[in-house]
Design brief:
The chain is an all-alpha fold. 70% of the residues lie in helices and 0% in strands. It is built from twelve helices and no strands. Helix 4 (51-74) crosses helix 5, helix 4 (51-74) runs parallel beside helix 7 (119-130) and helix 5 packs antiparallel against helix 11.
């Protein structure tokens, strides 16, 4: 008799991902999914209520792991806030790329800004942003008063929309090793933050040229 496998969240992610990629669709139900993988159905419910919850959690899981991996470097007070964001994002997109077929299968072909799949990721991303010190920047100190008062909720939303736009770009990126996604992330982060510095026009111009060329190539 075959020995039952040890079930945990990571194992269910693995088994579900394999099924989705091999069959091109969700399992028929949890009972059959558990039976085919030699574990009890009740074990599934220790971790998830259903397949939709797994899909909502997969991208969040990848982001959480990326945040944890970057935390050792980011723990230094000498790392600027912008660099802390980039450190997490670069690891996150590397994890997305390692699981690209699965992630694309989950996201589908639709615009992803408002889809439920990203609900858990959005909450974790907000928690990450809340750990950052935006008041320490010299450019904030130089900025106009209305920018300095840019409230926490608005900042969370702006940075969330930036991450969503980066995921959308990554979905369509055809460059080797998705290197243009890294460029996109860095340039758009630079623009968002450097608009408050002394050279906003150059940053916006450089970003505009990049986005225009990439949109033309990918359309």
């Amino acid at each position: 008799m075959q020995e039952q496998i040890k079930i945990n969240r990571e194992k269910i992610f693995e088994l579900y991902g394999d099924y989705l990629l091999n069959h091109g669709e969700k399992p028929k139900n949890v009972y059959l999914f558990a039976k085919e993988n030699d574990f009890e159905e009740k074990e599934f419910y220790h971790y998830f209520s259903g397949f939709d919850q797994i899909e909502r959690e997969i991208l969040n899981h990848l982001f959480t792991k990326s945040w944890e991996l970057a935390s050792e470097v980011n723990s230094s007070n000498e790392i600027p806030t912008k660099e802390k964001i980039l450190n997490v994002y670069y690891i996150f997109f590397e994890n997305l790329t390692m699981n690209r077929s699965l992630v694309l299968s989950i996201l589908g072909n639709h615009k992803i800004q408002n889809i439920k799949i990203l609900q858990n990721l959005r909450e974790t991303h907000k928690q990450f942003i809340n750990t950052l010190n935006f008041n320490e920047w010299e450019m904030i100190e130089k900025a106009k008063e209305d920018i300095r008062k840019f409230n926490e909720k608005s900042r969370q939303e702006a940075l969330w929309l930036h991450l969503v736009s980066a995921i959308e770009f990554w979905k369509k990126d055809t460059s080797p090793d998705f290197e243009k996604t890294d460029i996109f992330i860095e340039k758009t982060i630079d623009t968002g933050f450097e608009l408050m510095d002394n050279e906003p026009l150059r940053k916006v111009f450089d970003l505009g040229k990049f986005l225009w060329k990439e949109k033309f190539k990918m359309s």
